[in-house]
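ESCALATION

Customer reports they have been waiting on this structure for their group meeting. Please prioritize. Original submission:
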Amino acid sequence: MLFKKKSLKNLFFDLWYRFGKPPWIIDQAQPDLIAAAEKGEVRGPTVLDVGCGTGDNAIYLAGRGFEVTGVDVSAKAINIAKQKARKAKVDVTFITLDALNIGTLAKKFDTLIDFGLFHNVKGDRERYVHALSDVCASKGQLLMLCFSDQAGEYDVYPHFYPKPMSQDEIHASFSKGWKIEWIRLGRTQSNQKFEDYSSWLTNMTSKK
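Update from on-call: job pushed to the front of the queue and completed.
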C-alpha cells in the first residue's frame, strides 16, 4: 500500500495485518500473475513487487528463479512476508518503504509488478508513475493489476472499494515514458467468499 507519511490510515493497515487478514491476502500468488509467469510474460532476472503486502507474489516469483525485491509501507506486512519467505525457503529482499520513495532503492529492475496498489493511488498518481520510471531498467516492463470499471462491486459499495479504473485512465496515466503493450480483463482473487474483483491486467514497457 502507499501513503505519503506515517498516518492514521497507515496505522489502520498495520493493525489490520496484525489482528486480521485484509481481503487481498490469499496466501498464494494471484492467479493472473501465475498465468503471466507461465506464459513468459515476466522478464528477469530482477523483479520489484511494489506494494507487496505479505509477499505472496514476490515469494512465488522467487521460487521461479527471479531475483525479487518487495516493498510495502506496512512494517507488519513486511515482517509477515519475511516469515513466509523463510518458511518457503526462498531468498527475497523485503523492505518497509513507501511506494512514492522507491527511487531511493538506487537499483533498476527488469520487471515491476503492481498487483492491487495503483487503484488506491489518487492525488499522487503522477508522482507514483514517475517513481516507477525511476526504478525501471531500460526497456524494462511494468505488469499491473488494478480494479476495472467492469466491476459491479464498486456500484454496490462505493465507499468501501477503491475506485475502479477505465482503460482510458490507464492510458492517460502512463502516457509519458511508457508504451502500453496490452490490456486484458482479469480478476483479483480475494479471501472473501464470492468476492473476486474484475480487474485490468496491463503490460507496459519503459520507453527509456
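Sent to customer with the following note: Helices lie at 8-19, 31-38, 56-63, 75-88, 125-135, 153-156, 167-173.
Escalation resolved.
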